[in-house]
Predict the 3D structure of the following.
Amino acid sequence: MTDSIQNTIDYLQETRDRMMEDYKELLRFPSISADPAHAADVHACAAWIVGQLEALGFDKCEAIATEGYPVVYGEWLKAGADKPTVLVYAHYDVQPVDPLPLWRSEPFEGLIRDGKMFARGASDNKAGVWGNLKLFEALLRTNGELPVNVKIMFEGEEESGSPSIEAFVKANKERLKADVLLNCDGDFAPDDPRLYYGGRGMVTAEVRVSGPKADIHSGLYGGLVQNPLHVAGRIIGSFHDDEGSIQVPGYYDMVREASEVEKSRIEAGFQADAMKEGAGVNQFWGDSIAPAAERATVYPTCDIIGMWGGYQGAGSKTIIPAEAGFKITMRLAPDQDPPAIAKALKDYVESFTTDTVEVECNVGEMAWYFELVTEGPWLEAVQSAIEATVGKRAQLVRTGGSIPILGVFNRLIGLPITAFAYGEGEGIHSPNEYLKLDSFYTSLEAAVRLYHNLAAVEV
């Protein structure tokens, strides 16, 4: 091990307590991009990160305005023209915290308990932001320089579907020019290292069913006025057949069948028992459609993620509600076109409009599927760093989740993309999210080796 690598690792070990106390400052920003009530918090979080980059000596640090929330940018381009330029991606926005009563501590305070940091965003994905900031600090403090040229791109809309990111990338192609994109949104589990090389696209929508002009007496109007809740339930019930196959016309038309190599890789990386345990179920649904591993990663989905209407309080209130509604998330398979799927969904849902109720489907987020490199020097740089740190290489796995910006880069930039994540955690998108501190520290050590490995890639 070279002195520069060991000196950096030593620095990270010596400063780990301060590092995690300082992390709480970032975690205190309730940067919930999906909730307009937190708009000022998202902007404040972006400004704070800009300040951190400036303090490290990065140049052209800026919270670049978009139609939505800013992209934090900064660059350190002093490694020389013979060294690669790495565009580093993570996101600083977080999911809502509901239901708040299930949290055992304040979600935006940052509480260390039993070797874990509990806070919303502690793992997803402020760990990716903080891990890179601390890594760059360690490299600069111990070596006076970074081994590669670095451009930072920290997004503020990932958890709300990245609605402004495609326009941002189109407008900033020159600024974002690099040799490789390093995605730092994910998990690093030292005992079972995994690299996500692909994920699904996404379409979200909100459906509103409107009936009478106001909530009306169910005794007087029951049987005369169609109930919006009944119509909403009928639409929801129509989305799947009894086996789980999605019934929106044309939904499967563009689905690309996975290759045999891909199927083998997916099956090898799928942990059925762990998935069942994580969900708290004994049996999966939809077994007749395809193997569970494929349904979880390369098959499209349609899920109701929220619904409302009528009286929700104690006891009963005998009314026919004026309105009912629900929210939909669709995860899209490779080659499914989000705008085309969104139109098919909207046309199908709004076909339930009758003379007695009006059905409106408003499409929200749209994102393409993404694919990262599965071979070559950029991936080898990551794999070698992980192996040197934990004694084994990462297994390549496909995720069922979505990272909208990666699909944008696949289509618009053609930049090779690889991945490296900082730490592992649980409770992502749920109450009591946490980051395992030991895993985070281990990932920092691997990251030191990674950036030196990247410096050795010929460009």
In short: The mean pLDDT is 95. The domain at 201-255+300-367 is CATH 3.30.70.360 (Alpha-Beta Plaits). Residues 437-455 form the longest helix (19 residues).
